[in-house]
Amino acid sequence: MSQAEDMRSDIPGENRSAMVSTGSAETAVGPEAGEPEEDIVSLGSDDSEGLNGSDADETDEATEPGERSEDDGLIDLADLEQEGEIAADYVEGLLDIADLDGDIDMDVEGNRAVVSVVGATLDELVGRRGEVLEALQELTRLAVHRQTGERAKLMLDVGGYRARRRDELTEVGRDAADEVKRSGTPKALAVMTPFERKVVHGAVADAGLRSESEGEEPNRRVVVYPAE
């Protein structure tokens, strides 16, 4: 069995239905590739927190069966470091298959492992609006799950994309909130990924307004509402 076939064998059958090509590498997109963020975010809610690094992913999802939670006291640094090492090895293998260069950094931020590919220009691993990056992240999470038996919440970044996009979207959320405050009418924003919506929700909440996600994937968007 080739290395590529072995990697694809990590993906459960129901997650092999959609494939995204990145050069000579293939990544699988499963049903959880865009995990839903909370639909309603208002000032002071838990979902407006964690957007400054440690929980900058697309969601503050509740614990699901098989997932460790901090309340259970089951997440520790060693577990997160192990997830990071598994994820880093897996991503390195994908880079080798695609014949792409890049250094891999590992870190632990808050309650998740963070794996970053840095160094080279790797736009093909980010894709339009980060869609390829989201697929790669889900594939990496599945690989970690296969080895640990636990549902991973690790975050994958490529070339600092998430940090740059977070800054841009924070400004989008602030501008939308300012406009809604002036006009007094709701404002619908452009279609966004779960990660993008999460950041905008946080920015709107910080501005003291309420926002909701409306529509169905892949055409889901944030709507900002005036204060009641």
Count of individual domains: 2
Within the largest sheet, what's the order of strands?
3-8-9-7
Mean pLDDT: 75
What is the H/E order? HEEEHEEHEHEHEE
CATH superfamily of the largest domain: K homology (KH) domain
The count of strands amounts to 9
Structural class: alpha+beta
Dominant shape: elongated
CATH architecture of the largest domain: 2-Layer Sandwich
- In the CATH scheme, the class of the largest domain would be Alpha Beta
CA distance, first residue to last residue: 61 Å
Number of helices: 5
Instruction: Give the biggest sheet.
Output: 4 strands, antiparallel
Low-confidence stretches: 1-73
CATH topology of the largest domain: GMP Synthetase, Chain A, domain 3
Structural overview:
The protein has 228 residues and is α+β, with helices and mostly antiparallel strands. The protein folds into two domains: 3-29 and 56-160, K homology (KH) domain (GMP Synthetase, Chain A, domain 3, 2-Layer Sandwich), CATH 3.30.300; 164-225, R3H-like domain (Ribosomal Protein S8, Chain: A, domain 1, 2-Layer Sandwich), CATH 3.30.1370.50. The chain contains five helices and nine strands; from the N terminus they run αβββαββαβαβαββ. The strands form three sheets. The protein has a four-stranded antiparallel beta sheet with strand order 3-8-9-7, covered by helices on one side. A three-stranded mixed beta sheet has the order 4-5-6. Strands 1-2 form a two-stranded antiparallel sheet. A hairpin with a 6-residue loop joins strand 8 and strand 9. Helix 2 crosses helix 3 and helix 4 (161-183) packs across helix 5 (194-206). The longest helix has 23 residues, at 161-183.
